[in-house]
Queue: 4 jobs
Job 1
Amino acid sequence: MPAISSNKPYRIGRSPTGLGLFATQPIKKGTRIIRYFGPLLDCDKEADDAIENKYLFQLSNRWTIDGSVRANVARYINHSCRPNAESDVKPRKRKVFIRAIKNIAPGDEINYDYGTDYFKEYLKPIGCKCVGCEKKRKKKRAEARAERQRLKIKAEKKALRQAEKLAKDRAKQARKARDKAGEARKQAGRKKLNGAHLNGHGSHKIHAVKSDISVRARGAQGRAR
C-alpha cells in the first residue's frame, strides 16, 4: 500500500466495497483533494485488450490514463451515485484532479461518480454498492417486508371474516332446520287432533242414558180431576 504524507487530508481505509479513501481533515467545497495519474495510453496505437482494466480514465477520444499503478492513491476513491467530490478533467494538460463538491468532514469517505459507461459495464451487472444505492435497496426491502406483512394481515382478516360468515350461515341453516322440524311436528299434531276428535266421524260411541221419567197415555175418555 503506498505511503501517504501526514499532511495530506486523506487516508486509505476499509469501506463497504473494499478499500476506500477517507478524509482525515475537514475538506472545503471546491478544494482539489488529489490528482488521478498514471501512464498515458494512446488509444489509436494500443490494442483494446492491451489496455483493458477498471482503472482506466479517459481524457479524450485518444488519450487515456492507466490509473492501475500503486502510486496512484486516487484509484482507491470509490464510486457513488450521490458523491461528495467530482473529477476535474483537463484534457489539454492531460491531467485529472478530484475536487470536493461538498464540505467533507473528517472520517467521511471521499467518492465521485465514475460515469455512465463505467456504471453500465462494471457496476450495474453486480449492483452498485455505494451508500446511496444501499439505502435505496434497504428502503425497498423494508417496503417489501411491510407490504408482505400488510398482505398477510389482510389475508388473515379476510379468512376470519369468511370463517365468521360461514359459521353464521351454518347457524342460520341449523335454526331453519329446527324451525322446520318443529313446524312439521305441530302440523302433524293438528292433523291428528282434527281427524280424531273434532269432525264427528271418529271411532267414538254414543251411549243411551236410562231415565226415571214414565209417560202414561191418556185415554179418549180419561178423567180429568
Job 2
Amino acid sequence: MSTGPRTPEGKALISQNAIRHGIFARDLVIDTGDGKEDEDEYHELLYGLMECLHPAGQMELLLVEKVACDYWRLRRVLRFETGSIRKVIDMAISDYYNKADYFGNKEHRDNAELDWEISRCETSQDENAKTRLADLKRQRLKNQLAEEVAVKVASLPAGDDWDKVIKYEKAIQRSILQNLALLKRLQSMR
C-alpha cells in the first residue's frame, strides 16, 4: 500500500496533480462544433507558463492557470475578430459578384467562369479570340481589384463586433496583469 511521496522532489511533483490537467480545462476548452479547440494546445500553454513562472503551492498554481485561461480567452477573442472581418469581406465579395441590373443580369462573372473562358480563348485559333482574351483578362483584373478593395475596406470588424472585441480584450488583459501582479507578490513573500 502506497503512503504517498516521501522525498521533497516527490512531494513537489504530487502537489501539482490538481493542476496537471488544468482545473479549468474541462470547462474552458470547446470540444465540439466549428469552434472546436485543441485541449493539448491549452495544456502546452499552461505548462509553458508554469515552467516560465515557477509557481509553488496551490495558490500560485491557481494563479498561473488563471493566466493561462485568460491567454486562451484572448486567443478566442482574436479568432472572433478574424471571423467577424472574414464575414464582412465574404459578404462584400458576394455582393460584388451577385450584383445584377434591372433585368436580373449579373454585372460581374466570377473568376472560375472567367478562367474557363480564358483557357478556351488561349487555345483558340480564331482572330476574335485575341480581342476576347484581352477583355476577359481585364474583367479578371477588375475582379481581383474589387476583392482587394473589399479586404481593405473590411479590415476591421463591423460596429458592434468591434466594440465587443475591444471590451473583452481590455478586460482579459487587465485580468492577466492583475493575476501576474498577485503572483509576483506571493512569490516575493516566499
Job 3
Amino acid sequence: MTLIVKPIAVAIMITTLVLSEGELFAQQRCTISIDQAVALPLTTAEGNQVRVVINYDIKDQSLVGQRLNAIMGIYDRQNGTLIKLSSFPNGFILNNTNGTTQLATTLTDPKIQNISAIVTITNGDKTEKYTNDVRADLDLRTILPTTLPPLLENIQGPIQGASSADNEGYN
C-alpha cells in the first residue's frame, strides 16, 4: 500500500502541530478563565458596554513585575466575523501570580445581537500569546433598558378577597 501525501495536507499538519505547541507553551505560562461576562446598556449614550472579567493563574514567576496586555475580540456569532478588538492602551503591570482583570468595550451598532467575546493575555506589545483563549457568548437582545416604565401606575389597589399581607407594598 502506497501513502500519497499532498504538500497542502503536510502544511496543514505542520501548522496544526506548531499552533498546538504554541498553545501548550502559552498555557504553561499562564491560564485564564472567565469570572463574569455581561453586556449592559450605556446610560449616557447609545450602545452597549461588553465587560469580561477574567481570572488568571501565572505559572511562570518571571512574568511577575512585567508589563502584560490582554486582548478581547468581539465576534458576530451568526457569521463569525470580527466586530471589534480591544486591549489595554498601555498594558498592565502584573503584580501577583493570581488575580482578576476586566476588559470592556462599547458596541454602538444596534443590529449586533449575538456575540462571542474571546480573551487572551499577551506580552505588553501584544506579539506573544501567554494564555489559553476563553470565550463568553452573549445575547444583546436580553439586555434590560436603563429605565423602566412606571409599573405602579397600573396597579389598582388591594385585590378583592386577598389578605393585607398579599398586597403589602401595593397600597
Job 4
Amino acid sequence: MSMLLSLKKMKNIKDNVLKQASNELRRTDDAIRRFLSLESLPEPIACKPGCHYCCFNLPMVTPPEALLIGHYLDRTFTYHQKQTLNQRIRKINEKIADKRADEIFMMRHELPCIFLEKTMCMIYAVRPAVCRACSSTSEAHCKMIFETKNHRSRLRSYPQLREMFETVHLRLIEFCREKGCQSDALKLSDAVEDYIRHPNPATAWLRGEIVFRIY
C-alpha cells in the first residue's frame, strides 16, 4: 500500500510540474498578446506560420520545459520520429564539436532546430518560452541576416518581449530550486536526447537526480 501511495504522490508531483510549465508558457502568450495589442506600437510583428529564420539556433530551456516537451513527445511522437530526432541531434553535435561559443553563434544558419519540419514547428503547442518571445518587425531583415549569414546584425524586435522570456525563465528556474531539483539552463537538443534515453526522466528529476547534462 505504501508503494502505491508513493507512486501516486510522485505522479501528482509530476503533474504539478507539467502544469506549472504549461501555466508559465500560457502566461507568456497572454503577456505577449496584451503587449502586441497596444495601439502605441510603431510596427506590427511580422512573424507568421512558415517564417522560420529564427528557428536556426540552439535555444536554451529550463528542466520543466524539457519535461513538458518530453511528455508531449511520449504522447504524440512515434518511435521512428524519436529516432529521427536523435539523428538530427547527432548531426548538430558533430558540427559544433570542439567549437567555442562565439564560433557556434556565427554558424547558426547551419543549425536548424531539431523540431523544424518543412518550415513548421513540430512541437508548437509546447514550444519553450524563448521561442514564444522571439519575434521580429521585419521578415525581410530576418531573411537578409539568414541569407548573408550576418549574425552580428541585430533582429528588429521589441526588447519588452525578451524581458518577458527572461522573467518566465527565471521563475521556472526558481521553481526547480524550491523543489530541490536540477535547475540548470539546458540546450534544447541535448535535453531532448537525455529525456529520450532515460528510462524514467521525470521521476528521476523529481528525486533530485541529475537527468540532463550540463556544460
